[in-house]
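Shift notes (night). Ran Bet v I/Major latex protein domain-containing protein while the centrifuge was going.
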Amino acid sequence: MKGHLSHDYLLEVPAAVVWDTYRGLELGKLVNQMFQDVVGMIEVVHGDGGVGTILKITFPPGTLGLSYMKEIFTEADDEQRVKESEIIEGGFKDFGFEVYRYRFQIIEKNGESSIIRSSVEYEIDDKLQEIASLATTKQMEALNEVVGKHLKQKWDSSNKKP
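Came back to this:
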């Protein structure tokens, strides 16, 4: 069984600015500095932020009953502003998902705003289809909201007009 979930988050910040944060390791650094209570602790196991980079995310207590996961970056497309990663250990794999993939796409709406499209793709054995209801974009939505507020505040303060 395969599934797909998606969520759009509108942000009054240019797409290029948002992509600079989401494309490599900057997002993880920002989470560790400001949002550990929402997302957890992110550590680089291997890599420099490009394809093949492996991260370990240790979740805050009570996060869907998960303690940690490791993910690998499988796509980083600067032209399309797409970043994709797949869980390789822990997390939703522990529930029985064969594949659990996260994808962020930063879409330019106009010169002053953008959309963060977050999606999850998953595969699970047909016999475990009741577990498919655990798939969610909620963590990504929370991340986009806190990072979005931070980027908006930073963007507004650096672009004040006299």
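The two ends are 56 Å apart (CA to CA). The CA atoms of residues 54 and 79 lie 22 Å apart.
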